[in-house]
Design goal:
Blueprint (H helix, E strand, L loop, with lengths): L5 H25 L7 H7 L1 H15 L8 H31 L1
Helix pairs in contact: 1-2, 1-3, 2-4, 3-4
């Protein structure tokens, strides 16, 4: 297996840090009076973060075949995360219609 370049590592790590930061910002927004639905959006982001951490862990160990299950987990968590994000976005959209 090939080692990742410095630039690729920089993008991987900064993306995970950015995702964590986005989760916390959206959670903070959800604590305001009329934005409590955004709590569910921040919670829906967590499976994608877990998937990203699976991928990074696999890369840390130089893509060993023994850890190939992490690739499967990453795919599963990405699917779950995309589904929960779509559901949370749809719920926010529908609830916002009732406030207008």
């Amino acid at each position: 297996m090939h080692e990742l370049s410095f630039g690729t590592w920089l993008i991987h790590i900064s993306s995970v840090i950015e995702w964590i930061y986005a989760i916390f910002i959206i959670y903070k927004i959800s604590t305001y009076k009329n934005y409590n639905l955004y709590f569910w959006l921040s919670l829906a982001m967590v499976p994608n973060l877990i998937g990203a951490m699976c991928a990074i862990t696999w890369h840390i160990y130089d893509n060993q075949d023994a850890l190939y299950g992490l690739v499967t987990l990453q795919g599963i968590f990405t699917f779950i995360g995309n589904s929960t994000l779509a559901l949370a976005s749809f719920i926010i959209f529908k609830k916002k219609e009732t406030y207008e």
